[in-house]
Automatic annotation (TrEMBL):
This is Alpha-L-fucosidase. CDD domains: SGNH_plant_lipase_like. Coiled coil: none annotated. InterPro entries: GDSL, SGNH_hydro_sf, SGNH_plant_lipase-like. It comes from the Eukaryota. One of its GO terms (molecular function) is hydrolase activity, acting on ester bonds. The keyword Magnesium does not apply. Belongs to the 'GDSL' lipolytic enzyme family.
Amino acid sequence: MRVMISTLWILLLYCSIITNYSVVAVAVAGDDSKKCEFPAIYNFGDSNSDTGGLSAAFGQPGYPYGESFFHHAAGRYCDGRLLLDFIAENLDLPYLNAFLDAVGSNFSHGANFATAGSTIRPQNTTLHQVGGFSPFSLNVQFYQFNDFHRRTQIFRKKGGIYKTLLPKAEDFSRALYTFDIGQNDLASGYFQNMSIDQVKAYVPDVLDQFKYVVKNIYENGGRSFWIHNTGPVGCLPYIIELHKVKPDEFDKAGCAIPYNEVAKFFNHELKSAVVQLRKELHLAAITYVDVYSVKYSLISQAKKHGFKEHLRACCGHGGKYNYNKKIGCGGKVKIDGKEILIAKPCKDPSVVVNWDGVHLTQAANKWVFDQIVDGSFSDPPIPLNMACHKHL
């Protein structure tokens, strides 16, 4: 009898433990199923996500940039919105103002530190040199963020307009930190006439510097990170046109295989860096987003996805790809003392993938965003609005 009672007691205890464990598990799953309420976005990157940084420093890109949506120059190297703009829309946040833009900016919902031409690793060239890049490399963008973080709280305490235009202290730990940078680090090597192997050789150093910045943002309270890998640069006219590509080095889509292979190598190493960061930053939720695969799918199967042109630029002048490094989109020439626009936009950018030989059109950006927003191309596979949840 005692044996039966003991056995029954053990079974009841076991059931109790299992039940309690299940309740805890459900509670955890329930927490993870809640949408994240991101109060702000802080973005770091290059022209793929620049909403006015470089133009604030060096002047706006003129007509026809911005015409498809803003109907005027909006600091974006696109005919309209960027991936970052669609991210903000999805999270019910206003479009991000550039940190460098002093006119009409509201930083209560975040700030954008990206500038066109930026690299992860600082460059030894000036912006206006051939192959020159932005002076605002990722480490500089972090310095700006660090200063922004500190000084906004000093001024916010003064109240008034400062309280309206600047973020709350607690928003920094609840914000989403987005990254879209690395493409120019690869391009910089090509502009210096480096070989494919030479470019690959410095990728580990580039990513060491990337990890350093992410760690520093974490130390400043950042917890949710959304990191895009780099796209298929071998499908961009400015790479294809400026660098010698042998006929047998093109794939069926018309993209330069060697340059895409380097991009894939960079992405493999970036993903490994993200894995390492997850091990070191125990409270961070880090999402790696494979935009390369999405962009390549769009370019290689453009007609299937509703686009008519996949490589040829919508806005430009001359050549197979409608791209000319000397006369970019919106370029003019003087004829008999009169300026004539010769690098004009195409009639319908909404059916063209490439905007100006370097960047995607708004329509292409929207298509890419629609593929990544639900987490289908993310590691871990979680949607954008769940990116605050850490997954083991």
